[in-house]
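In this section we walk through a basic example: taking a raw amino acid sequence and producing a predicted 3D structure, encoded as C-alpha coordinates. The instruction is simple. Fold the sequence below.
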Amino acid sequence: MRFTIKPVAMALTMALSATAAAADKEPSVAELMEMIKAQQAMIEKQNQMIEQLSEKVDKVEVETVANTQAVEATVEAIETASTGEGTAWDRISFGGYGELHYNNLDGSGGASDKKEIDFHRFVLFTGYEFTDNLRFFSELELEHSLSGDDKPGEVELEQAYIEYDFNENYSAKTGLFLLPIGLLNETHEPPTFYGVERNNVEKNIIPTTWWEAGAGVTGKYDNGISWGSYVHSGLKTSADSSYKIRSGRQKVAEASAEDLAYTANIKYSGVPGLELGAAVQYQGDVTQGEDPDAGSATLIEVHGTYQYEQFGLRTLVAIWDLDGSGPKAIGADEQYGFYVEPSWRFNDSFGVFARYSEWDNQAGDDNDSESEYAQYDFGVNWWLHPQVVIKADYQIQDNESGKEQDGVNLGMGYHF
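The resulting C-alpha coordinate sequence is shown next.
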Protein backbone atom coordinates (compact mmCIF):
# COMPACT_ATOMS: atom_id res chain seq x y z
CA MET A 1 0.00 0.00 0.00
CA ARG A 2 1.41 3.51 -0.95
CA PHE A 3 0.33 7.20 -0.48
CA THR A 4 1.66 9.96 -2.89
CA ILE A 5 1.39 13.79 -3.16
CA LYS A 6 2.02 15.43 -6.59
CA PRO A 7 4.03 18.64 -6.84
CA VAL A 8 1.94 21.78 -6.52
CA ALA A 9 4.43 24.44 -7.66
CA MET A 10 2.01 26.06 -10.10
CA ALA A 11 -0.74 26.28 -7.54
CA LEU A 12 1.72 27.61 -5.00
CA THR A 13 2.98 30.24 -7.40
CA MET A 14 -0.53 31.47 -8.09
CA ALA A 15 -1.23 31.55 -4.37
CA LEU A 16 1.92 33.52 -3.66
CA SER A 17 1.19 35.93 -6.50
CA ALA A 18 -2.30 36.49 -5.19
CA THR A 19 -0.89 37.11 -1.74
CA ALA A 20 1.70 39.52 -3.05
CA ALA A 21 -0.89 41.36 -5.13
CA ALA A 22 -3.03 41.73 -2.10
CA ALA A 23 -0.08 43.26 -0.34
CA ASP A 24 0.75 45.50 -3.36
CA LYS A 25 4.22 43.86 -3.48
CA GLU A 26 5.60 41.74 -6.31
CA PRO A 27 7.98 38.99 -4.97
CA SER A 28 11.33 38.65 -6.61
CA VAL A 29 12.28 35.58 -8.57
CA ALA A 30 14.83 34.65 -5.94
CA GLU A 31 12.29 34.91 -3.15
CA LEU A 32 9.83 32.91 -5.18
CA MET A 33 12.39 30.14 -5.79
CA GLU A 34 13.31 30.00 -2.09
CA MET A 35 9.67 29.64 -1.16
CA ILE A 36 9.19 26.86 -3.76
CA LYS A 37 12.28 24.99 -2.42
CA ALA A 38 10.96 25.25 1.12
CA GLN A 39 7.60 23.88 0.06
CA GLN A 40 9.22 21.07 -1.91
CA ALA A 41 11.31 20.11 1.18
CA MET A 42 8.12 20.01 3.23
CA ILE A 43 6.40 17.83 0.64
CA GLU A 44 9.43 15.48 0.56
CA LYS A 45 9.33 15.12 4.35
CA GLN A 46 5.61 14.40 4.19
CA ASN A 47 6.25 11.73 1.55
CA GLN A 48 8.85 10.12 3.82
CA MET A 49 6.34 10.07 6.68
CA ILE A 50 3.72 8.56 4.39
CA GLU A 51 6.24 5.93 3.25
CA GLN A 52 6.96 4.95 6.86
CA LEU A 53 3.25 4.82 7.58
CA SER A 54 2.69 2.62 4.53
CA GLU A 55 5.39 0.20 5.71
CA LYS A 56 3.72 -0.05 9.12
CA VAL A 57 0.37 -0.73 7.48
CA ASP A 58 1.93 -3.50 5.38
CA LYS A 59 3.45 -5.06 8.52
CA VAL A 60 0.09 -4.97 10.30
CA GLU A 61 -1.51 -6.68 7.30
CA VAL A 62 1.15 -9.45 7.35
CA GLU A 63 0.70 -9.96 11.10
CA THR A 64 -3.07 -10.04 10.68
CA VAL A 65 -2.78 -12.77 8.03
CA ALA A 66 -0.38 -14.76 10.25
CA ASN A 67 -2.72 -14.45 13.25
CA THR A 68 -5.65 -15.54 11.13
CA GLN A 69 -3.71 -18.59 9.93
CA ALA A 70 -2.72 -19.43 13.53
CA VAL A 71 -6.34 -19.23 14.66
CA GLU A 72 -7.43 -21.43 11.77
CA ALA A 73 -4.68 -23.95 12.64
CA THR A 74 -5.79 -24.00 16.28
CA VAL A 75 -9.41 -24.58 15.32
CA GLU A 76 -8.34 -27.35 12.95
CA ALA A 77 -6.25 -28.99 15.71
CA ILE A 78 -9.22 -28.91 18.10
CA GLU A 79 -11.50 -30.42 15.48
CA THR A 80 -8.86 -33.06 14.65
CA ALA A 81 -8.48 -34.03 18.31
CA SER A 82 -12.24 -34.37 18.69
CA THR A 83 -12.37 -36.82 15.79
CA GLY A 84 -9.58 -39.06 17.15
CA GLU A 85 -7.03 -37.96 14.55
CA GLY A 86 -3.85 -36.03 15.25
CA THR A 87 -0.13 -36.61 15.32
CA ALA A 88 1.37 -40.09 15.58
CA TRP A 89 2.41 -39.46 19.19
CA ASP A 90 -1.19 -38.59 20.11
CA ARG A 91 -2.32 -42.03 18.93
CA ILE A 92 0.32 -44.11 20.75
CA SER A 93 -0.54 -45.82 24.06
CA PHE A 94 1.97 -47.29 26.50
CA GLY A 95 1.70 -49.34 29.69
CA GLY A 96 2.87 -52.42 31.49
CA TYR A 97 2.97 -54.46 34.69
CA GLY A 98 5.38 -56.46 36.80
CA GLU A 99 5.58 -58.62 39.92
CA LEU A 100 8.26 -59.71 42.37
CA HIS A 101 7.74 -62.96 44.36
CA TYR A 102 9.36 -64.43 47.47
CA ASN A 103 8.51 -68.06 48.27
CA ASN A 104 9.47 -69.73 51.56
CA LEU A 105 7.93 -73.21 51.35
CA ASP A 106 8.74 -76.36 53.30
CA GLY A 107 8.51 -79.63 51.40
CA SER A 108 7.21 -82.90 52.84
CA GLY A 109 6.42 -86.41 51.60
CA GLY A 110 9.22 -86.24 49.06
CA ALA A 111 8.54 -82.68 47.85
CA SER A 112 11.49 -80.30 47.92
CA ASP A 113 11.77 -77.07 49.85
CA LYS A 114 11.40 -73.81 47.93
CA LYS A 115 13.32 -70.80 49.20
CA GLU A 116 13.36 -68.41 46.27
CA ILE A 117 13.05 -64.76 45.26
CA ASP A 118 12.17 -64.05 41.65
CA PHE A 119 11.13 -61.08 39.55
CA HIS A 120 8.55 -63.28 37.94
CA ARG A 121 7.27 -61.00 35.19
CA PHE A 122 8.19 -57.69 33.54
CA VAL A 123 5.71 -56.72 30.84
CA LEU A 124 5.36 -53.77 28.47
CA PHE A 125 2.21 -52.84 26.51
CA THR A 126 2.24 -50.71 23.37
CA GLY A 127 -0.65 -49.73 21.15
CA TYR A 128 -1.44 -47.46 18.23
CA GLU A 129 -4.80 -46.04 17.15
CA PHE A 130 -4.94 -45.64 13.39
CA THR A 131 -8.48 -44.27 13.49
CA ASP A 132 -11.34 -44.23 16.00
CA ASN A 133 -12.32 -47.75 14.92
CA LEU A 134 -8.98 -49.33 13.92
CA ARG A 135 -6.20 -50.01 16.44
CA PHE A 136 -3.16 -52.17 17.20
CA PHE A 137 -2.19 -53.64 20.59
CA SER A 138 0.86 -55.62 21.71
CA GLU A 139 2.38 -57.12 24.87
CA LEU A 140 6.02 -58.14 25.33
CA GLU A 141 7.09 -60.05 28.44
CA LEU A 142 10.33 -61.02 30.12
CA GLU A 143 9.87 -63.89 32.58
CA HIS A 144 12.20 -64.59 35.53
CA SER A 145 14.38 -61.54 34.87
CA LEU A 146 16.97 -63.24 32.65
CA SER A 147 16.68 -65.20 29.40
CA GLY A 148 19.12 -67.00 27.14
CA ASP A 149 21.00 -70.30 27.08
CA ASP A 150 20.80 -72.07 30.43
CA LYS A 151 18.94 -69.11 31.92
CA PRO A 152 15.59 -69.49 33.73
CA GLY A 153 13.62 -66.84 31.85
CA GLU A 154 12.03 -66.30 28.46
CA VAL A 155 11.21 -63.29 26.30
CA GLU A 156 7.69 -63.80 24.94
CA LEU A 157 5.37 -61.97 22.59
CA GLU A 158 2.01 -62.51 24.29
CA GLN A 159 -0.15 -60.18 22.21
CA ALA A 160 0.12 -58.48 18.81
CA TYR A 161 -3.20 -57.96 17.06
CA ILE A 162 -5.27 -55.57 14.97
CA GLU A 163 -8.81 -54.75 16.14
CA TYR A 164 -11.50 -53.17 13.97
CA ASP A 165 -14.90 -51.86 15.11
CA PHE A 166 -17.68 -52.33 12.58
CA ASN A 167 -19.89 -50.20 14.82
CA GLU A 168 -20.43 -49.67 18.55
CA ASN A 169 -21.69 -53.26 18.99
CA TYR A 170 -19.54 -55.45 16.75
CA SER A 171 -15.77 -55.78 16.32
CA ALA A 172 -13.20 -58.12 14.82
CA LYS A 173 -9.59 -58.91 15.64
CA THR A 174 -6.76 -60.79 14.00
CA GLY A 175 -3.22 -61.54 15.08
CA LEU A 176 -1.85 -62.99 18.29
CA PHE A 177 -4.18 -62.53 21.28
CA LEU A 178 -5.17 -63.88 24.69
CA LEU A 179 -8.07 -66.30 24.66
CA PRO A 180 -11.21 -65.14 26.52
CA ILE A 181 -11.30 -68.12 28.88
CA GLY A 182 -11.52 -67.92 32.67
CA LEU A 183 -11.03 -64.94 34.97
CA LEU A 184 -7.26 -64.37 34.80
CA ASN A 185 -6.25 -65.11 31.23
CA GLU A 186 -7.21 -61.71 29.86
CA THR A 187 -6.95 -59.72 33.12
CA HIS A 188 -3.96 -60.84 35.19
CA GLU A 189 -2.23 -57.65 36.32
CA PRO A 190 -1.16 -58.17 39.99
CA PRO A 191 -3.38 -55.45 41.58
CA THR A 192 -6.50 -57.07 40.05
CA PHE A 193 -6.44 -60.36 42.01
CA TYR A 194 -5.69 -61.80 45.46
CA GLY A 195 -2.69 -63.98 46.22
CA VAL A 196 0.97 -63.76 45.29
CA GLU A 197 0.83 -66.64 42.80
CA ARG A 198 -1.94 -67.13 40.27
CA ASN A 199 -4.39 -69.84 41.31
CA ASN A 200 -3.45 -73.37 40.30
CA VAL A 201 -6.65 -74.13 38.40
CA GLU A 202 -6.09 -71.26 35.98
CA LYS A 203 -2.47 -72.31 35.69
CA ASN A 204 -2.73 -76.06 35.12
CA ILE A 205 -6.17 -76.49 33.55
CA ILE A 206 -7.00 -73.27 31.60
CA PRO A 207 -3.83 -72.72 31.26
CA THR A 208 -3.05 -69.05 31.99
CA THR A 209 -1.37 -67.20 30.37
CA TRP A 210 -2.67 -68.70 27.13
CA TRP A 211 -2.40 -66.95 23.78
CA GLU A 212 -2.93 -68.14 20.21
CA ALA A 213 -2.90 -66.66 16.69
CA GLY A 214 -5.99 -66.38 14.54
CA ALA A 215 -9.07 -64.24 14.04
CA GLY A 216 -12.41 -63.66 15.69
CA VAL A 217 -15.51 -61.50 15.97
CA THR A 218 -17.08 -60.06 19.13
CA GLY A 219 -20.34 -58.44 20.11
CA LYS A 220 -21.46 -56.38 23.10
CA TYR A 221 -24.84 -54.91 24.02
CA ASP A 222 -26.31 -52.37 26.42
CA ASN A 223 -28.00 -55.12 28.46
CA GLY A 224 -24.59 -56.36 29.68
CA ILE A 225 -24.26 -59.37 27.38
CA SER A 226 -21.08 -59.81 25.33
CA TRP A 227 -19.76 -62.72 23.27
CA GLY A 228 -16.90 -63.80 21.04
CA SER A 229 -16.16 -66.46 18.44
CA TYR A 230 -12.62 -67.33 17.28
CA VAL A 231 -10.62 -69.69 15.08
CA HIS A 232 -6.95 -69.97 15.98
CA SER A 233 -3.85 -72.10 16.42
CA GLY A 234 -4.18 -75.00 18.84
CA LEU A 235 -2.40 -77.05 21.49
CA LYS A 236 0.17 -79.77 20.86
CA THR A 237 0.26 -82.25 23.73
CA SER A 238 2.03 -85.60 23.76
CA ALA A 239 2.30 -88.84 25.67
CA ASP A 240 5.73 -87.75 26.91
CA SER A 241 4.06 -85.03 28.98
CA SER A 242 1.13 -87.28 29.97
CA TYR A 243 -1.08 -85.13 27.72
CA LYS A 244 -1.05 -82.34 30.26
CA ILE A 245 -2.74 -79.26 28.87
CA ARG A 246 -0.17 -76.69 30.00
CA SER A 247 2.64 -78.55 28.27
CA GLY A 248 0.70 -78.29 24.99
CA ARG A 249 1.00 -74.52 24.60
CA GLN A 250 2.95 -73.72 21.41
CA LYS A 251 3.07 -69.95 22.06
CA VAL A 252 2.80 -69.28 18.31
CA ALA A 253 6.51 -70.00 17.83
CA GLU A 254 6.63 -71.83 14.48
CA ALA A 255 3.54 -73.59 15.84
CA SER A 256 2.23 -76.66 14.11
CA ALA A 257 -1.11 -75.87 12.46
CA GLU A 258 -2.13 -79.31 11.25
CA ASP A 259 -5.25 -78.90 13.35
CA LEU A 260 -6.81 -75.55 14.32
CA ALA A 261 -8.91 -74.88 17.39
CA TYR A 262 -12.21 -73.03 17.87
CA THR A 263 -13.27 -71.00 20.90
CA ALA A 264 -16.54 -69.28 21.81
CA ASN A 265 -17.38 -67.36 24.95
CA ILE A 266 -20.28 -65.44 26.47
CA LYS A 267 -20.43 -63.08 29.44
CA TYR A 268 -23.12 -61.24 31.37
CA SER A 269 -22.36 -58.14 33.49
CA GLY A 270 -25.71 -56.37 33.48
CA VAL A 271 -25.97 -56.22 37.30
CA PRO A 272 -23.50 -53.97 39.17
CA GLY A 273 -20.79 -56.07 40.82
CA LEU A 274 -21.80 -59.29 39.03
CA GLU A 275 -20.12 -61.13 36.16
CA LEU A 276 -21.14 -64.55 34.86
CA GLY A 277 -19.21 -66.14 32.03
CA ALA A 278 -18.66 -69.36 30.11
CA ALA A 279 -16.36 -70.57 27.34
CA VAL A 280 -16.01 -73.67 25.19
CA GLN A 281 -13.13 -74.79 22.98
CA TYR A 282 -12.82 -77.65 20.50
CA GLN A 283 -9.76 -79.02 18.72
CA GLY A 284 -9.94 -82.01 16.38
CA ASP A 285 -6.51 -83.40 17.23
CA VAL A 286 -4.77 -82.17 20.37
CA THR A 287 -1.41 -83.67 19.26
CA GLN A 288 -1.39 -82.01 15.80
CA GLY A 289 -1.48 -85.42 14.10
CA GLU A 290 1.65 -86.80 15.78
CA ASP A 291 -0.03 -89.37 18.05
CA PRO A 292 -2.46 -91.90 16.49
CA ASP A 293 -3.57 -92.91 19.98
CA ALA A 294 -4.96 -89.43 20.75
CA GLY A 295 -7.80 -87.44 19.25
CA SER A 296 -9.96 -84.41 19.87
CA ALA A 297 -10.04 -82.22 22.97
CA THR A 298 -12.98 -80.21 24.32
CA LEU A 299 -12.85 -77.64 27.11
CA ILE A 300 -15.86 -76.31 29.02
CA GLU A 301 -15.31 -73.48 31.50
CA VAL A 302 -17.77 -71.47 33.62
CA HIS A 303 -17.03 -68.74 36.14
CA GLY A 304 -18.65 -66.07 38.26
CA THR A 305 -17.61 -63.05 40.30
CA TYR A 306 -19.68 -60.95 42.67
CA GLN A 307 -18.77 -57.89 44.69
CA TYR A 308 -21.32 -56.52 47.18
CA GLU A 309 -19.96 -53.68 49.25
CA GLN A 310 -16.99 -55.18 51.17
CA PHE A 311 -17.79 -58.83 50.36
CA GLY A 312 -16.40 -60.46 47.22
CA LEU A 313 -16.67 -63.95 45.73
CA ARG A 314 -14.92 -65.61 42.77
CA THR A 315 -15.47 -69.14 41.56
CA LEU A 316 -14.52 -71.13 38.47
CA VAL A 317 -14.86 -74.66 37.06
CA ALA A 318 -12.97 -75.97 34.02
CA ILE A 319 -13.14 -79.49 32.51
CA TRP A 320 -11.23 -81.03 29.57
CA ASP A 321 -12.39 -84.15 27.71
CA LEU A 322 -9.71 -85.81 25.55
CA ASP A 323 -10.51 -88.60 23.10
CA GLY A 324 -8.21 -91.49 22.22
CA SER A 325 -6.80 -94.59 23.79
CA GLY A 326 -3.54 -92.85 24.74
CA PRO A 327 -5.04 -90.27 27.11
CA LYS A 328 -7.56 -92.81 28.41
CA ALA A 329 -4.87 -95.34 29.32
CA ILE A 330 -3.34 -92.97 31.89
CA GLY A 331 -6.52 -91.23 32.96
CA ALA A 332 -5.67 -88.00 31.08
CA ASP A 333 -8.89 -88.22 29.08
CA GLU A 334 -10.49 -86.13 31.85
CA GLN A 335 -8.70 -83.11 33.35
CA TYR A 336 -10.55 -80.76 35.64
CA GLY A 337 -10.19 -78.06 38.26
CA PHE A 338 -12.26 -75.68 40.36
CA TYR A 339 -11.78 -73.06 43.06
CA VAL A 340 -13.83 -70.90 45.39
CA GLU A 341 -12.46 -67.62 46.72
CA PRO A 342 -14.35 -65.38 49.18
CA SER A 343 -12.79 -62.06 50.16
CA TRP A 344 -13.43 -59.01 52.36
CA ARG A 345 -12.30 -55.50 51.38
CA PHE A 346 -12.02 -53.35 54.52
CA ASN A 347 -11.32 -50.15 52.58
CA ASP A 348 -9.50 -48.92 49.49
CA SER A 349 -6.17 -50.10 50.93
CA PHE A 350 -6.70 -53.47 52.63
CA GLY A 351 -8.43 -56.72 51.78
CA VAL A 352 -8.23 -60.35 52.93
CA PHE A 353 -9.10 -63.59 51.14
CA ALA A 354 -9.34 -67.33 51.47
CA ARG A 355 -9.25 -69.83 48.60
CA TYR A 356 -9.78 -73.53 48.14
CA SER A 357 -8.63 -74.99 44.82
CA GLU A 358 -8.59 -78.53 43.46
CA TRP A 359 -7.21 -79.82 40.15
CA ASP A 360 -6.29 -83.07 38.46
CA ASN A 361 -4.70 -83.66 35.04
CA GLN A 362 -5.32 -87.42 35.23
CA ALA A 363 -8.82 -87.68 36.63
CA GLY A 364 -10.10 -90.37 34.24
CA ASP A 365 -11.47 -93.71 35.41
CA ASP A 366 -8.40 -95.62 34.22
CA ASN A 367 -5.98 -93.62 36.35
CA ASP A 368 -4.54 -95.55 39.28
CA SER A 369 -2.02 -92.86 40.30
CA GLU A 370 -2.53 -90.33 43.06
CA SER A 371 -2.83 -87.30 40.80
CA GLU A 372 -5.31 -85.05 42.58
CA TYR A 373 -4.02 -81.80 44.08
CA ALA A 374 -5.72 -79.51 46.60
CA GLN A 375 -4.56 -76.28 48.17
CA TYR A 376 -5.81 -73.80 50.77
CA ASP A 377 -4.63 -70.18 50.61
CA PHE A 378 -5.16 -67.38 53.12
CA GLY A 379 -3.78 -63.89 52.70
CA VAL A 380 -3.91 -60.12 52.55
CA ASN A 381 -3.53 -57.46 49.86
CA TRP A 382 -2.31 -53.97 50.73
CA TRP A 383 -2.93 -51.49 47.93
CA LEU A 384 -0.54 -48.54 48.23
CA HIS A 385 -2.35 -47.19 45.17
CA PRO A 386 -5.11 -48.75 43.04
CA GLN A 387 -2.33 -49.81 40.66
CA VAL A 388 0.34 -50.83 43.20
CA VAL A 389 -0.06 -53.72 45.67
CA ILE A 390 1.88 -55.57 48.37
CA LYS A 391 0.73 -59.17 48.97
CA ALA A 392 1.22 -61.88 51.59
CA ASP A 393 -0.37 -65.31 51.88
CA TYR A 394 0.06 -68.73 53.46
CA GLN A 395 -0.54 -71.93 51.48
CA ILE A 396 -1.37 -75.41 52.72
CA GLN A 397 -1.42 -78.33 50.28
CA ASP A 398 -3.39 -81.54 50.65
CA ASN A 399 -2.31 -83.77 47.74
CA GLU A 400 -3.19 -87.41 47.17
CA SER A 401 0.45 -88.25 46.56
CA GLY A 402 1.48 -86.81 49.93
CA LYS A 403 4.09 -84.60 48.26
CA GLU A 404 3.28 -81.17 49.58
CA GLN A 405 4.75 -77.68 49.93
CA ASP A 406 3.42 -75.46 52.70
CA GLY A 407 4.56 -71.99 53.67
CA VAL A 408 4.61 -68.25 53.06
CA ASN A 409 4.51 -66.25 49.83
CA LEU A 410 5.26 -62.52 49.65
CA GLY A 411 4.91 -60.31 46.62
CA MET A 412 4.88 -56.86 45.09
CA GLY A 413 3.05 -55.92 41.91
CA TYR A 414 2.09 -52.93 39.79
CA HIS A 415 0.50 -51.94 36.51
CA PHE A 416 0.11 -48.70 34.59
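Looking at the output, two observations stand out. The radius of gyration is 40 Å. DSSP finds four helices and 16 strands in the chain. In the next section we compare this with other chains.
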